[in-house]
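Hey, sorry to bother you again with one of my protein questions. There's a protein on my desk that I can't quite get my head around. No rush at all, and the record is pasted right below.
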Amino acid sequence: MSWLRRVSPLSGSVLLALSTVALACSDDGGEGADDEVGESAGESSDDGTDDTTETTGDDDETTSDDAETSDDAETTTDTGEPEPATEPGCEDAEFYAVPEDPAERGPWAVGAKTVVIDGLTTEIWYPAQWGSEAGADLKGYDLRAFLPESEAAKIPDEKAPPQVCDCYDDLPIDAAHGPYPVVVFVHGTASWRSQSLSQVTHWASRGFVVVSSDHPGLMLGDILGPLCGLPGSQQDLSGDTDAVLAALAAPSGDWAFLDGLIDMERMAVSGHSAGGSAAANQADKPGMRVSIPMASGQPVVANPAIESSLFLGGNADGVVPYSSTQSGYAGTAAPKRLVGIENAGHLAFSDICEIENDEGQDILEVAVEADVCGASLAGFLFDCSDAFVAPEIATAIINHSSTAVLEEVLKCQDDDAFAEFEASYPDVAEFLQEL
């Protein structure tokens, strides 16, 4: 059932609040529509860090099971899988050989670590040491952590929809390879750092370090706050990214495991909706070579260092019209590509529509049932529908195109991964490139 059909009648005061949210979704500040109910698994601790809980994955396959292996691999681990062969990257970088199909998950199991910089809660997904996931449980994010505290308490454990990640908490990073290029991901309006696990863990499995923060003033709790009678937070997406980049440039404390293993000269910025506009506006930051706005109409800022821009949009987007994505592409300097997905909505670039609890309730149904303030208004931003393209098809198109661009520029792969792109994906409604 479409969330748009479950919206309650709006009072005058609510309409005023919604008009504020609508401004946050405009092309000027970024188009946003990623409301889900939470993020890190667990409540925030007194020292400002998030206590992440893990959900068991007895029925889930680990990423190493899906990894391609090579005939000349020499070592095996407790998982019984032979270690893949290696291939060169840019300059002196070295990586495991990845599957030729960019939509296929890479050979690395994905580690995940929750860190804090200047009060900014950030998740890091990264290539883990070979075989280190053996015996570990998949990481889970409790979406209640992204709600105002008073509202989170309304949802009992048995009703809370878990967001399970194909990643593992705090595994050792693969220090034998790299240095790894960095991808900064910015979530959308009323969302949170783990909204697009299908993308960020895919990139990490193929040899990228991916970072995503809970952005004050943009995340779910901050958007619902005023509707709950709570004060809002100041938004500074560019300043948030600057803080993350500074922590990456001189990693210490919880960030120290990255020291010497990341390439700050080969970075990309991506984001969804309002985060997509941020990805376009922040493409001039030092080290950025790729910009990937998703469901956004903002042209990528001029920067001679940008070697590739990729615009992704759904032609059934009810929040940011696909014509806006086309305009963003038209206003951006080459080299650039545009991928339009047939019958894809605004949230096709996130996992939000697929999150359900054990009773099959989606996150909006859970929030409305628990009388979470402002929950009945969520349909204003959400455009989930069973009539849209299947999530697995949209994910494959998104992962193929984004990974191809990232590997082309940041890992110096010269394969033409777009040669058979349209033929491989009938649900690609439009594909343009100007190189």
Q: What stands out?
A: Residues 391-410 form the longest helix (20 residues). The CA atoms of residues 4 and 380 lie 7 Å apart. The longest strand covers residues 262-272.
